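Input structure tokens:
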């Protein structure tokens, strides 16, 4: 009986989570008359791809590519720094190590909205406003703490005996990191990459603040093109949302097993 209740609640949770996506997809296939019809038309009587044709011939594909590019560069930069930092704090003892870790953790507690104005002024003085580089640098800085803490636990789970065995074989510190430790924490790298990607993909406030031109516009900002002064183009908006979800769904389908392994393994030490 308890299993039935649990599975029933899980089913309800799935329906609750998936219904907006299903409704959005159904709306994207409707004509204008069916979109505004009352009572609402649940399943389009005459499905059409006109909304998709309109959004794919507008700037949306460029916005998606911009988001993919910025997310990819942010992942590379964040993990390149966080992996070295996570390995160092998990393997070496030095004065102030714990204080440094807690300082990194404390930086995550500062409301990101409070940093928008200082970041805008700094970007303006450095000439980085309305550039993808500005987004990559800020996103990397914001996601570094969680990546360091996540990878620190993964490196801590790699037996130190492997390091000592590699030293006997003549490996130096960098060789041990790149050839022994780093390949063993690939699930952690995948988990951190997914978290960073989702943050970048979903961000709006920073993207709309630091970029203004069409060539640098992110997908979350581009979706607001379909929200006009006199109304919302629901058909095209839902089609654009569906297109914007595709990279996320493809990524999750590709790394689902690695992500699950990474999130569970990184939370348990020893």
């Amino acid at each position: 009986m308890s299993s039935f209740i649990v599975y029933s609640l899980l089913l309800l949770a799935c329906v609750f989570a998936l219904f907006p996506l299903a409704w959005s997809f159904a709306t994207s296939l409707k004509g204008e008359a069916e979109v505004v019809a009352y009572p609402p038309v649940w399943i389009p009587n005459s499905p059409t791809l006109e909304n998709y044709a309109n959004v794919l011939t507008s700037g949306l594909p460029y916005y998606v590519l911009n988001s993919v590019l910025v997310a990819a560069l942010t992942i590379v930069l964040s993990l390149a720094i966080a992996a070295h930092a996570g390995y160092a704090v998990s393997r070496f003892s030095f004065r102030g190590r714990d204080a440094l870790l807690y300082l990194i953790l404390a930086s995550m507690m500062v409301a990101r909205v409070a940093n928008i104005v200082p970041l805008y002024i700094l970007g303006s003085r450095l000439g980085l406003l309305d550039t993808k580089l500005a987004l990559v640098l800020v996103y990397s800085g914001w996601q570094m703490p969680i990546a360091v803490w996540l990878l620190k636990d993964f490196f801590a789970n790699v037996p130190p005996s492997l390091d000592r065995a590699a030293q006997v074989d003549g490996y130096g510190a960098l060789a041990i990191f790149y050839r022994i430790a780093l390949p063993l924490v690939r699930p952690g790298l995948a988990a951190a990459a997914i978290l960073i990607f989702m943050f970048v993909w979903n961000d709006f406030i920073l993207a709309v603040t630091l970029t203004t031109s069409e060539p640098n516009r992110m997908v979350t900002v581009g979706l607001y093109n379909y929200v006009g002064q006199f109304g919302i183009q629901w058909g095209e908006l839902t089609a654009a949302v569906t297109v914007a979800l595709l990279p996320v769904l493809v990524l999750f389908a590709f790394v689902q097993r690695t992500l699950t392994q990474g999130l569970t393994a990184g939370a348990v030490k020893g």
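The longest strand covers residues 227-228. The mean pLDDT is 84.
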